[in-house]
Amino acid sequence: MSANSLFASAAALRARRLAQGRRMDRLFRLATVLFAWGVLLVLGAIIVVLLVQAWPAFSRFGFGFFTSTAWNPVTENYGAASSILGTLVTAFIAIALAVPISFGIALFLTELSPRWLRRPIGIAVELLAGIPSIIYGIWGLFIFAPWFADNVQWRISDTLGNLPAIGPLFQGPPIGLGWLVAGLVLTIMIIPFIAAVMRDVFDVVPTTLKESAYAMGSTRWEVMRHIVLPYTSVGVIGGIMLGLGRALGETMAVTFVVGNAHDIHASLFMPGNTIASTIANEFTEATTVPHRSALIALGLILFIITFVVLALAKFLLLQVERGQGQKA
Amino acid sequence: MHFSRLTKFATGASLAFMLGSVAHAASVKQITGAGSSFAYPLYSAWADQYAKQTGVQLNYQSIGSGGGIRAIKSRTVDFGATDAPLKEKDLKKHSLVQFPTAMGGVIPTINVPGVKPGQMVLSGPVLADIFMGKITQWNAPAIKQLNPGLNLPNMRITVVHRSDGSGTTFIFTNYLAKVSPAWKKEVGFGKAVNWPSSGNVGGKGNEGVAAYVNRIRGSIGYNEYAYVTQNHMNYADMINRAGQRVAPTAANFASAAANADWKHAPGYYLMLTDQPGAKSWPITGATFLLVPAKPAQPERTKAVLKFFDWGYTQGRSIAEKLDYIPMPESVVKMIEATWHQDIHPTIWK
């Protein structure tokens, strides 16, 4: 065989391989496109199904469904206001408390903790994330709520409850069930998510950046505040959103401790409910069309709330990124 | 149609025996049912013993009464089980036959410092006023008047109710609606209602209500009899329709069933609440079964009825041991006559 023909066959082989590679590329591309569109399709299908099934409730109660606090299966009169408010309040309490605590945990683990302590604490935080929510619910109901009622709640009522503006927030019978306790249990449940994400993104900050700042005489807090946080803001907000998403949709644990009353009160100590807890409580026994439809409408509202929250987060991220672009 | 039950059974059994050798399809090895979670412990205990004796298995899904009704309406199970009976109109519409299988009582459970189980007595109207938030203190005059010898604390009443839809709530609110016009008008009855008092608490399941009542001083809730006895909960006696003070006991639940007018209740749509009789516990309820009136698979429905006939007769002691109240024999006779009347005759062939 001559050298020429050897080259020719090698070139043909390469061409064949290239063609094959291109085919595989196209196939791979097609597959990933299908997967990506599949998500959109499923999402769209969920919205359509929810809309169709929630329609009887919306057409029957109109816009009043969002503002009414009625929830009366006997007269078939339903309103979502107490559930929506309960969902937002408990999730807000959880985020307001979990974010600083998670920040502290992540800060300690990445900057302050001695090396040998990092792994045990890290694993402990991740273990918290692995506990099923029903366990949190049972713990909340049988251990945390009684303890809170007997030791904390009346103290808060006696002190903060007498203050002029915020007083009504903390008045009520010391039974340990309600928005605040549900928010506290949620806080514990979402800390691991937020803390783990924060720790991971703090870890990827280039050491040279931090060392330069320290070299300029920055304190640890200044390094965190002005170097690490801006560098990782996208990831931090992502972690918070992950936690918020879980807090909004959490069902079993909240059902156990929120008190399950279709009421709106000024006080955080009074029993209330959330969208998820209402659905969990009533879906199995909802036999009539309006009742089922009202519950599915609640599901749709939760879907929309979550969507709006995530959209807002995305918007916030864009602002942050733009701000960084200008600085650079 | 005036055979005695025994001859009917003898004919049925011999027919089944004769046919069994010819048509193999008649041997059903497994029946399926779904619904009432209240009835689940009883049905599963019956099924266990029944399978040992006959080899016929019961696959029962405890998904709640509402789920049971949906499942039998769509005919995905052989029977549905519900604590809230369907009205005759509904039965006709979906071609179903309904009958009660066992009973239980609902009991006001209380947590009042210084008051021991059975020391306090409440009347229907007072109970309704408490749950409506009209009586808010344990030392209110209406409660004092019923309990002259009792040292009642000056303590706020916290009302505890079921947060999930439940047959227990159906029975309890049905009773309150019968004894209190205000309750009937403002709240009504159902598996879930719009609880009127402000600051009340909802617990999920019997265990949720029990946990709150045990923990919250000054609370009152309601639980199933079996739950109260097995967990030694504190409870109140009731004054019944006859004006007598009665304790929640099996005999007093049975009295309510025996005094009820089943004959004039089409489709056995009968609530055992507020029944006459000096000993009748006023908040008694039955759990019901739903089977198709014109079964597509007659041999399966027949297997279901055989199972429950066994439960009515040989399953009595099992029911009693689990704190359920078996149906009185007179009522069982009536039910089995109903089967022959209302279920399409193909299944008896």
Automatic annotation (TrEMBL), chain A:
It is found in: Cell inner membrane; Cell membrane. InterPro entries: MetI-like, MetI-like_sf, Phosphate_PstC, Phosphate_Transport_Permease. One of its GO terms (biological process) is phosphate ion transport. Residues 84-313 form the ABC transmembrane type-1 domain. Its main location: membrane. GO terms for molecular function: phosphate transmembrane transporter activity. It comes from the Bacteria. The chain crosses the membrane at residues 27-58, 78-109, 121-149, 177-202, 223-244, 294-317. Gene3D superfamilies: MetI-like. It is a multi-pass membrane protein. SUPFAM superfamilies: MetI-like. Keywords: Cell inner membrane, Cell membrane, Membrane, Phosphate transport, Transmembrane, Transmembrane helix, Transport. One of its GO terms (cellular component) is plasma membrane. NCBIfam families: phosphate_pstC. Part of the binding-protein-dependent transport system for phosphate; probably responsible for the translocation of the substrate across the membrane. Belongs to the binding-protein-dependent transport system permease family. CysTW subfamily. This is Phosphate transport system permease protein.
UniProtKB/TrEMBL annotation, chain B:
SUPFAM superfamilies: Periplasmic binding protein-like II. It comes from the Bacteria. One of its GO terms (molecular function) is phosphate ion binding. GO terms for cellular component: ATP-binding cassette (ABC) transporter complex. The keyword Signal applies. InterPro entries: ABC_phos-bd_PstS, PBP_domain, Phosphate-bind_PstS. Keywords: Phosphate transport, Signal, Transport. The keyword Transport applies. Residues 22-310 form the PBP domain. One of its GO terms (biological process) is phosphate ion transmembrane transport. Residues 1-25 form the signal peptide. NCBIfam families: 3a0107s03, PRK10918.1. The complex is composed of two ATP-binding proteins (PstB), two transmembrane proteins (PstC and PstA) and a solute-binding protein (PstS). Belongs to the PstS family. Part of the ABC transporter complex PstSACB involved in phosphate import. This is Phosphate-binding protein PstS.
